[in-house]
Amino acid sequence: MDRQTYFEGITACGENCAGCAKKAAGQCRGCRESDGCCEEWAGTGRCPIHSCVQAHGVLFCGLCGSFPCKELPGLLNWNPNAAEHLAALAEQYREQTC
To answer: Which range of residues forms the domain containing residue 46?
Structure first.
């Protein structure tokens, strides 16, 4: 294994809060710390991805037994490579934790 990932800093959608300028500047508490009610979702309630991950009892999307699900493209429409990224992240997680 080439590198270690701090998975507690990985968001439900697979983003990494480590090194985030908004979080470092105190403009965002982080998805986990705010229970999915971060600035990106201000005014709309809780992040739907965070809610889904919590409902399925997993750390992030790629670890869900239903991954990849039909909801994924709509929930992660800003990242066209989301499924590939989450699958690779899940593989790395399993390598580090098993």
So the answer is: 7-97
